[in-house]
Structures are given as C-alpha cells and as structure tokens.
Amino acid sequence: MDLHRPVDSNKTYEEMTADEKLRYDHQKMHEMHRGHESMHTTMVMILIVTLIVAQVIVVEWKKRHYRSYAFFTMIAMWSIPVLMSLKNQWWRFIIIWTIFTLLTAVVIRKSTTKPMSVTTPRLVYKWFYLIYKVSCFLGVFGYVAMMLTFLGLNVMFGHKPQQWMDVALMFLFYGLYFGVLGRDVAEYCTDKMAASIGYYTKEGMPTRQLENNVCAVCGNKLLVDVNEEGVLENTYKLTCGHVFHEFCIRGWCIVGKKQTCPYCKEKVDLKRMFTNPWDRPHILYGQLLDWIRWLVAWQPLILFLAQGINWLFGLE
C-alpha cells in the first residue's frame, strides 16, 4: 500500500485537508498497533511501576538530601523545557529563555562572587522580585483569559475559542514556569549570599557584630526609623529586635523563601509581618508554584526512563 495515498481516496497525503490528514493518521496508527494489546498492557504496567518507584525515590531524596535535590531540580527545570523547544523549534520560548538565562547568570555571578559588593543583595532581590511580580501577572492573566474563554466571551470579538485558549495557556505556562525557576534560583542565590554576608555560618554562630542603624540583609544604612514613613521604602523590625529595609526583608522572606531572621535565625511570622491583604496572595502564589516542578522537571525524566525500560525489553 502506498503510504502517501489513502485507500479510500484519490488524493495524495500532501493534497489532503487537515481533517483528512488527522483521520488518515488515526487510521494508520490503529493498523500499526493492531494485535499489540498484550505489549501495550506491559508498557502501561511498566509506566505505572516507574511512576510509583520514582515518586518514592524523589520524596526520600528531598527528605534526606534537600540541597542536592533542590539543585538537581533547578537544573532540570532550566534545561528540559529548552531542549524540548529546540527539538520542536519553538523559537519564541527559546528567545525568552535565552534572555532570562543571560540576565540571571549575571545576577548569580554577582551573588557568588567573593568578596561580595554591598550593593549585590539589593540587586539580587530586585531582580528576582521583578521576576516574581511579572510571573504572577502572566499567570493571573492567562488564568483569567482561560475563564473568559470558557464563558464564551471570545464570541463577542469574533474570535475562535482555540485562539483565546492558545494565548491563555501560553501566558499561564510562562508565568508558572519562570515563576518556579525564579524562586529556585533565588533560593540558591540567597544561600550563597547568606554565607558571604558573614553574619552567621552553617554552625549558626555570627562571624561579625551587627552595627546599629544598619540593615541585617544588605549591610547598608537605614534611611528612616521603624515608626517613620519613608519616601522610597520603610524600615521593618522583627520580633527579635533586628531591623531591615522593608524591601530587603520582603525579598529575604518571600522571594528567597526564608522564614528566619538573616542575623539570628529566629522564626519570622509572615502573617504578622505582611498584614496588607494584597501581600498574602503572593505568599500563597509562591507555595502553589511548587506543584509545577513535578510537571516540568520530574515527569519528563520519569517518562524518558519508562521509554528507556521499554526499549531495553524491545517494546514499542
């Protein structure tokens, strides 16, 4: 049989419409897999077992060696989507990913350079706080566009639902993906800066004394007192008595996911710290982003592993 000429058609494959190609490909797939039911059952069982075993391994790895788990997850988050994009020639994502990677690489380099400049912490927090805000906006925009499509609002503008849904999913993906990746890299940079700042070591003992009227995160002077209203930013005081630039401690707690004082490691009460209702969704948003790691980083690796097992057993 000529694969480029369907049985019930005088058209070649290139001459068929999109719907005819879809029906032809579907028919061809069924013919190719006919009689392979037992093989397919074996492949499904391999996939299920691989998912269960991988889930147990990932959970135990995260519990026992969190630093290596977090670093590997960050690398997987960073590399797997761009490899898939190169394979499928998704150039828009590749361009955005490249710009993000180049700028973030500069920030990572500054955060790991020793001796660290006194302006580096604020630069790092500003960059990742910007990523966090932009990703939040993109995610919310994508979600709202998706809901409006479900409600049929696209009909008022004469657009097809698929057009709006494609745009909504694109914005939602960009927001969630770069939001998660930004948080992971921010945590990595925060750990590096915490050691470079020199207020405490891994053993928990401060290596130098905190001076009065100095921010315990960036080491710069505080511009206003705790109870005064600042022009650029306010000064915040934790329950342990240490004071910070408001922007620095926000970045430390939310962007860097640190819930301890940068100087003495006392627990930070985020609910008490951010009483503004507009800030609370940001914290919840950051927690929800953790669910994306499994879909973007670990699921492709597990599926690739399952395919490798099928290949070893000669299953197709």
Automatic annotation (TrEMBL):
<feature type="transmembrane region" description="Helical">
    <location>
        <begin position="66"/>
        <end position="84"/>
    </location>
</feature>
<keyword id="KW-0862">Zinc</keyword>
<feature type="transmembrane region" description="Helical">
    <location>
        <begin position="39"/>
        <end position="59"/>
    </location>
</feature>
<dbReference type="GO" id="GO:0000139">
    <property type="term" value="C:Golgi membrane"/>
</dbReference>
<dbReference type="GO" id="GO:0008270">
    <property type="term" value="F:zinc ion binding"/>
</dbReference>
<keyword id="KW-0863">Zinc-finger</keyword>
<keyword id="KW-0472">Membrane</keyword>
<dbReference type="GO" id="GO:0061630">
    <property type="term" value="F:ubiquitin protein ligase activity"/>
</dbReference>
<dbReference type="Pfam" id="PF13639">
    <property type="entry name" value="zf-RING_2"/>
</dbReference>
<dbReference type="InterPro" id="IPR040176">
    <property type="entry name" value="RNF121/RNF175"/>
</dbReference>
<protein>
    <recommendedName>
        <fullName>RING-type domain-containing protein</fullName>
    </recommendedName>
</protein>
<keyword id="KW-0479">Metal-binding</keyword>
<feature type="domain" description="RING-type">
    <location>
        <begin position="215"/>
        <end position="265"/>
    </location>
</feature>
<feature type="transmembrane region" description="Helical">
    <location>
        <begin position="163"/>
        <end position="182"/>
    </location>
</feature>
<feature type="transmembrane region" description="Helical">
    <location>
        <begin position="129"/>
        <end position="151"/>
    </location>
</feature>
<dbReference type="GO" id="GO:0005789">
    <property type="term" value="C:endoplasmic reticulum membrane"/>
</dbReference>
<feature type="transmembrane region" description="Helical">
    <location>
        <begin position="90"/>
        <end position="108"/>
    </location>
</feature>
<dbReference type="GO" id="GO:0036503">
    <property type="term" value="P:ERAD pathway"/>
</dbReference>
<keyword id="KW-1133">Transmembrane helix</keyword>
<dbReference type="InterPro" id="IPR013083">
    <property type="entry name" value="Znf_RING/FYVE/PHD"/>
</dbReference>
<keyword id="KW-0812">Transmembrane</keyword>
<dbReference type="InterPro" id="IPR001841">
    <property type="entry name" value="Znf_RING"/>
</dbReference>
